[in-house]
Specification:
Elements: H1 7-11, H2 16-49, H3 54-97, H4 108-120, H5 122-150, H6 152-161, H7 164-206, H8 210-262, H9 268-290, H10 292-305, E1 343-345, E2 352-358, E3 367-373, E4 379-385, H11 391-398, E5 406-411, E6 415-418, E7 427-428, H12 429-434, H13 442-451, H14 455-459, E8 467-468, H15 477-490, E9 495-499, H16 510-521, E10 525-529, H17 533-537, E11 541-545, H18 568-595, H19 597-627, H20 637-680, H21 693-708, H22 710-735, H23 739-784, H24 786-792, H25 796-799, H26 801-848, H27 854-866, H28 868-872, H29 874-895, H30 907-912, E12 928-935, E13 945-952, E14 957-961, H31 968-975, E15 983-988, E16 991-992, H32 998-1002, E17 1005-1008, H33 1019-1024, H34 1032-1041, H35 1045-1049, H36 1064-1078, E18 1082-1086, H37 1094-1106, E19 1112-1116, H38 1120-1123, E20 1129-1135, E21 1145-1151
Parallel strand pairs: 1-5, 4-10, 4-11, 6-9, 9-10, 14-19, 14-20, 17-18, 18-19
Antiparallel strand pairs: 2-3, 2-5, 7-8, 12-13, 12-15, 15-16, 20-21
Helix pairs in contact: 2-3, 2-5, 2-9, 2-26, 2-27, 3-4, 3-5, 3-26, 4-7, 4-10, 4-23, 5-6, 5-9, 5-10, 6-8, 7-8, 7-10, 7-21, 8-9, 8-18, 8-19, 8-20, 9-19, 13-15, 18-20, 19-20, 19-22, 19-27, 20-21, 20-22, 21-23, 21-29, 22-23, 22-29, 23-26, 23-29, 26-27, 26-29, 34-36
Organism: Ornithinicoccus hortensis
Pfam families: ABC_membrane (PF00664), ABC_tran (PF00005)
Domain ABC transmembrane type-1: 20-297, 600-883
């Protein structure tokens, strides 16, 4: 990690001008600081000798005002520069990743961290640290040259000691680099974990594991806290060491000057100039150290981004697989290569693969030496094969989403890929369609939606302005599939890849989609992976994939063991104990924070540190003036010891304050994050479904950071400033009572200016927090779904259009906030200048009147100037307060929603039983009955489920079917207690569910939704969510019942294998195995066969419904023919859309 990496300026041209401007401003500020030191020496000499005060006082006031104007300008440039560079880096990273296969970009959690926190960490790096480096390279030279003119011996001391500071900084910085890299690893884990948990929160809620996961969230947050504190201790040590070294060096200058002054070798003004000018040579280097912890994050992020900022070589024609492990599909670092060695775009050529081999990490090759060709020109190619045979993987390779281990791909042009789980982003229907075709008109989009049969349902709502949530929340699975097909129809790509486009569509509506697909095939080459035999029969060309070893199905074999025996019980007990310890520790920390003891202690440390700085300056002035009278040296020893103590105490106390305050803030942050997660649980999924998960992540990451930062950036600095200023007023009250009110008024004015700045910044920060949330949300959405975006957008710029819009809004808000901050900063310097010159005038007048001695007159004159850093820093403190308030409001907006389901338990009871196991024994027969139930997802909006009667008695089988949008999934949500009924009655075992504890009701239900979530982790961990005490044998039985026995055997790690590259069918069957393992008496299944071939579907359903004959099963399906079997009776409910004429449900009892 280098202090400055020129790659930033080369790779991001937007950084060049801001960095140069900030360097120039820093240098100008350094020049004014040197001039101020000369003028202060002149003014104090005049005060102590009774000389004229008007000219030096007015000159000093002018220089202070000039510094204020320069500081105000620097605030604007700093804020804009940081935001501009971070935005450019973020966009460049995402654009780069959108053009390469998954194997040539970072893992999703790493990409997420780099595009959000990583890019954001460049703001202080660019805005503060780099200008400090420029200033450190220029200003010390100017100070030393000026000092040499004034006193060559003092300049010699500075020249000999100044090089030691960067040496010490480099030695300490090496350790900081190691700690920073560990912290970034912890931050990456935290980001990836939060993203995975938020995505899978509905699954955790379904199986009663959401509260347990809160402990893991707390544990991960605690690890991040410990890593951050370790890093900060080292970074703050660097600052303290540099300040201590500077203090000792200045003391050496002061001793030399004082001794020469005492024997008459120099005069008073020269001596004062030397001791005031010497710190200005060290100050820029100390500032570098003070900004070092910002630089550590920014430099580490920049180094981690590495070649992602450099771009591929324009002329590169090599094969990036040269750097990849052969044929394993693993991630490769292929810097500087163009991805053209394996994928060829040849106009007029057929779609073909030659000798393609691909394997997901840790698994056998799903494609091995595959060679296939379509005819030249437009037409329909059907890709068929058993579930898990590699159909989706082949389409991924054709689309360029995956890099094959060997072989090549040829396509005649751009490719549009409608995946099994289509990319549907938070926003309107129009927004989602424009991803593939940004220039189409509303008329064309309506025509495409009409062609797929979706427009009537949308027209009944808000049409193209219908708002969708994450993953198309607000539409049924079939409607999402239709929207994806409509988008493919609007795309201009000559090659369309469709992955099971009719899987979730009602049988009576499939012919319409068949017609659309055949129409598309008249002008383009369409490759469709499907289990729809009717659609496959219409194809002009067929590709058939044979099942791989992991696709074989075997019956459950109770005697089969994986051989992967683990100490699961011990591990689980250890995790629970760690979670308990972490939460207990954080509750204790939180209790301390609430009591304010640790915060007050940190504020006291900060006040003492600032007070030492004030005392050091004032006492040094007293000492030098006293020495000018050439007294006996022994009479100065007490003052010398005091100056030395103040000089040593300031950096040590500052180090202690920073460590303590940051530890408090990070513990508070970990507690708040865990608590925020707890508050998200009741809102899942109904209240969060329409809100982007990226918004939620922003709330529980960035907004929480700002709220928790109040301790470090607001509370402690305000306490320290008040303490130090009050102490200074008390000192003047004893030394020169007439000056004390002036200093007190100056203190109040400085605080008032800060408060004014807060009010000016408040509106800007509200807009800024909102805009920053949008930027974070858009970056998270893209970084978390890079392959999905790449599948549908022809130009990466289209995917980044919402991010660009959010960035523009953020830039405007940053400018507004910076302008308000600039006003407050300028006023703060004005208050400082007016107070300092007024107090100096009073001291000079008192000395001339004989009521104050010369040494004490110097002490009084220097005291306000010693408070310069404290007073001029108050606008930043109050600005942080405004930002924290805006973040808290935005956070509360997410967390304070009313849950969609009312839990009748008292709050205390709910908390106490959050982690307690369900009292109901597993697999106890339960009946569920709906009577006249209606429901809707939006708090205000159209009905999504019309009046429904349903009875699921123990052992019964209920099939819900009907057109898309009829409310089938809504009915399951009501049964699963994700949504309260709007009207009607829902009884479980004859008791109204609203009278039963929510956890009790949900503990009887196993849910498999239409897009099941699989967590990042092992096979075992994903299944044990449903039943943590299950044995390996029971897990294997559940997998076998779901048709995954052969799939498991193909994994090298068995149950300990990490899940990657799952097909839609495999993901669904894993969710089914989880439901079987849960052994709950009611199964709720939302289209569990949608992504399965027919033999597999029938086998899985047979095992599912026969595994426990007394279970109640409620299933949603568009293919009753797959569900019905000769030995099972199904009650079939045919639902109709609420806006359709006639009966909304027709009941039939069918025996296969």
């Amino acid at each position: 990690m280098r202090p400055f990496d020129p790659a930033l300026l080369r790779a991001v041209p937007a950084a060049r001008r801001p960095v140069a401007a900030l360097g120039a401003l820093g240098t100008a500020g350094g020049l004014l600081a040197v001039g101020q030191a000369l003028l202060v020496a002149w003014l104090v000499t005049a005060v102590a000798t009774g000389g004229p005060l008007r000219v030096p006082a007015l000159a000093l006031l002018g220089v202070v005002l000039a510094r204020g104007l320069l500081a105000a300008l620097a605030e604007r440039v700093t804020a804009s520069a940081g935001q501009r560079v971070s935005a450019a880096v973020r966009r460049q990273l995402l654009r780069r990743w959108l053009t390469v296969p998954e194997e040539l970009r970072p893992a999703p959690e790493v990409a997420l961290t780099r595009a959000t926190e990583g890019a954001g960490s460049l703001e202080p790096y660019v805005g503060r640290y780099l200008p400090a480096l420029v200033t450190a390279a220029v200003v010390p030279v100017l100070a030393v040259v000026t000092l040499a003119v004034v006193d060559v011996w003092s300049a010699l001391v500075v020249v000999l000691t100044l090089p030691l500071m960067p040496l010490f900084a480099a030695l300490i910085g090496k350790h900081t680099q190691d700690e920073t890299e560990k912290r970034w690893a912890a931050l990456t884990t935290l980001s990836g974990h939060f993203l995975d948990v938020v995505r899978g929160l509905p699954t955790l809620v379904n199986y009663g594991r959401a509260e347990h996961q809160a402990g893991i969230v707390a544990e991960v947050g605690e690890r991040h806290r410990r890593a951050t504190v370790r890093t900060l201790r080292t970074a703050f040590l660097s600052t303290a060491a540099l300040e201590l070294l500077a203090t000792i060096s200045v003391a050496m200058v002061a001793v030399g000057v004082g001794l020469r002054l005492a024997v008459g070798w120099v005069d008073l003004q020269v001596a004062l100039t030397a001791i005031l000018l010497a710190p200005e040579a060290y100050w820029p280097v100390r500032r570098v150290g003070a900004e070092f912890h910002n630089a550590a994050d920014g430099a580490a992020a920049l180094e981690a981004m590495g070649d992602d900022l450099g771009g591929f070589a324009a002329s590169g024609a090599g094969d990036p697989r040269d750097d990849a492990p052969a044929g394993d599909g693993g991630r490769a670092v292929a810097a500087g290569c163009a991805v053209v060695g394996w994928r060829h775009v040849v106009p007029g050529a057929p779609v073909s693969v030659e000798g393609v081999r691909f394997a997901h990490p840790g698994r056998a090759a799903v494609l091995d030496g595959l060679s296939l060709h379509t005819p030249v020109g437009p037409g329909l190619t059907a890709l068929t094969g058993a579930s898990g045979a590699g159909k989706s993987t082949l389409l991924d390779v054709l689309a360029g989403l995956h890099l094959p281990g060997t072989g090549s791909v040829t396509v005649p042009g751009d490719v549009h890929y409608a995946r099994q789980r289509p990319l549907l982003v938070p926003g309107t229907v129009r927004d989602n369609l424009l991803l593939a075709a940004p220039n189409v008109t509303d008329g064309e989009t309506v025509f495409a939606l009409t062609a797929v049969g979706l427009w009537p349902a949308l027209a009944a709502r808000e049409g193209l302005d219908t708002v969708l949530g994450d993953d198309g929340f607000g539409l049924s699975a079939g409607q999402r599939a239709r929207l994806s097909l409509a988008r493919a129809r609007l795309a201009s790509a000559p090659v369309l890849l469709l992955d099971e486009p009719t899987a979730h569509v009602a049988a009576r509506d499939k012919p319409r989609l068949h017609e659309v697909i055949l129409e598309l095939a008249e002008h383009r080459r369409v490759v469709v992976a499907t289990h729809d035999t009717a659609l496959a029969g219409m194809a002009h060309d067929h590709w058939s994939l044979l099942p791989s070893a992991e696709g074989d199905h075997e019956a459950a074999r109770p005697d089969v063991r994986t051989g992967m025996e683990t100490a699961r019980s011990d591990v689980r007990t250890g995790v629970e104990a760690a979670r308990s310890d972490v939460r207990t520790g954080m509750e204790t920390a939180r209790s301390d924070v609430r009591s304010g003891r640790r915060v007050l202690w940190a504020g006291l440390l900060g006040g003492l540190s600032t007070g030492c700085g004030v005392a050091l300056t004032a006492a040094s002035g007293w000492l030098i003036v006293q020495a000018s009278f050439q007294p006996v040296i022994l009479t100065l020893l007490v003052a010398i010891v005091g100056v030395r103590a103040f000089g040593i105490g300031r950096p040590l106390l500052r180090y202690a304050e920073r460590v303590v305050s940051h530890d408090i803030a990070l513990a508070d942050l970990a507690w708040r994050r865990s608590r925020a997660y707890d508050r998200l649980i009741p809102l899942t999924p109904a209240r969060l479904g329409r809100r982007s998960r990226a918004d939620v992540l922003t709330a529980v990451v960035q907004d929480l950071d700002d709220v928790a930062d109040r301790t470090v950036r607001v509370t402690v600095p305000l306490l320290a400033a008040a303490f130090a200023s009050g102490l200074a007023v008390l000192v003047l009250l004893f030394v020169l009572p007439t000056a004390a009110p002036v200093l007190a008024l100056g203190t109040l004015a400085a605080f008032a200016v800060g408060r004014l700045g807060q009010r000016l910044e408040a509106a800007a920060h509200r807009a800024l927090v909102t805009a920053r949330g949008r930027v974070h949300a858009e970056a998270t959405a893209v970084a978390g779904q890079l392959s999905a975006y790449r599948a549908v957008v022809a130009d990466p710029g289209t995917a980044l259009t919402p991010l660009d819009s959010a960035t523009t809004a953020q830039a405007a808000a940053v400018r507004r906030a910076a302008s308000a901050r600039a006003v407050a900063t300028g006023l703060a310097w004005l208050v400082l200048g007016a107070t300092a010159t007024t107090v100096a005038w009073q001291a000079g007048t008192a000395f001339a009147a004989g009521t104050l001695s010369a040494p004490f007159a110097a002490l009084v004159a220097l005291t306000p100037l010693a408070l310069a850093d404290t007073w001029t820093g108050l606008p930043e403190v109050f600005g942080a307060r405004a930002r924290a308030a805006a973040a808290a409001t935005r956070l509360e907006d997410v967390l304070a929603q009313e849950p969609a389901v009312v839990d009748p338990r008292p709050a205390a009871s709910a908390d106490s039983s959050a982690t307690a196991p369900a009292a109901r024994p597993r697999h106890t027969a339960v009946s569920a009955e709906l009577s006249g139930v209606t429901a809707r997802w939006a708090e205000e909006g159209p009905i999504d489920l019309a009046a429904l009667d349903l009875c699921a008695a123990p052992g019964s089988r209920v099939l819900l079917t009907g057109p898309n949008g009829a409310g089938k999934s809504t009915a399951l949500a009501v049964l699963a207690r994700h949504l309260d009924a709007l009207s009607g009655s829902y009884r479980q075992d004859g008791t109204e569910v609203n009278a039963l504890p929510l956890a009790h009701t949900r503990s009887t239900l196993a849910v498999v939704d239409d897009e099941p979530h699989v967590f990042a982790g092992t096979v075992r961990a994903n299944l044990l969510l449903a039943r943590p005490d299950a044995t390996d044998e029971e897990v294997c039985r559940a997998l076998a019942a779901a048709g995954l026995r052969g799939w498991l055997d193909a994994h090298r790690g068995g149950l300990d294998a990490t899940l990657t590259g799952l097909s839609g069918g495999e993901r669904t069957r894993l969710a089914i195995a989880r439901a079987i393992l849960s052994d709950r008496p009611v199964l709720l299944l939302d289209e569990p066969t949608a992504h399965l071939d027919r033999p597999t579907a029938r086998s899985v359903l047979h095992d599912l419904v026969t595994s426990a004959p007394d279970r109640a099963v409620v299933m949603v399906s568009h293919e009753p023919v797959l569900v019905l079997s000769p030995d099972t009776t199904w009650d079939v409910l045919q639902l109709e859309r609420p806006d359709a004429p006639g009966p909304v449900a027709e009941h039939r009892a069918l025996v296969g």
